[in-house]
Amino acid sequence: MDSSSILYNQLKTAEPFFVLAGPNVIESEEHILNMAKHIKAITTKLGLPLVFKSSFDKANRTSSKSFRGPGLAEGLKILERVKTTYDIPIVTDVHETIQCEAVGRVADIIQIPAFLCRQTDLLVAAAKTGKIINIKKGQFCAPSVMANSAEKIRMAGNENVMVCERGTMFGYNDLIVDPRNFEWMREANCPVVADITHSLQQPAGRKLEGGGVASGGLRELIPCIARTAVAVGVDGIFMEVHNDPLNAPVDGPTQWPLRHFEELLKELMEIARVSKGKQQDQIDLTPFSL
Which residue numbers delimit the DAHP synthetase I/KDSA domain (predicted)? Predict the structure, then answer.
């Protein structure tokens, strides 16, 4: 069994859930190594499987002036150093087919951004790397779409696929999380991940001084969405974590403070434990005849 399949099986069987976490974007090598050190220490202490996340390029920013990161070549060097220094798997996103091969040499999980979840050529190119593919559900998509996207990965010869809920457009500048999606996305027949930070984004919802807009967010509601997700029984939690969200160059309003990371995970673990215990011991899950 290859290393991707081994990791995939470890994540699928993780209890109570696995964690994909890290800063939204690589700000510097020093910052990313520091974040990885602290995040791994916390998840190791709690016994939660961790895949460290950060982006080398934020290609879908609202404004052309937004910080994007170090780019492909430099970003992958930094992520590889994180991987070898702290012995943790890496997840990062791709935006173009030509990025997949290089990213696949470093990342253990290749993430497909929500805007691109139906882009067949990108899905196939990512799948052919043999790495685990995490597909974020488009803000414009019904949950049923994810079964089709996951099937594109499998048809390209890769069985290691996951799908991720990250909210649905609710008007022009807001997202809403429909908890039913966590169940309906099971139709993709693979692990279901809840993005508990991006799902509280307010796209183009924050006006900037001097004109223009950027994404806002509702950081204070991250625990609410997280509690819902683990109570429903998702397999994994995706969350962007930062030591200083108020001064983060990208998506600060939807990054969770590092100082509260352990506290939130402990609460989520307890909710998951109680929820799964009730499902096993007290609740008959046989479908109702209505």
Answer: 15-270
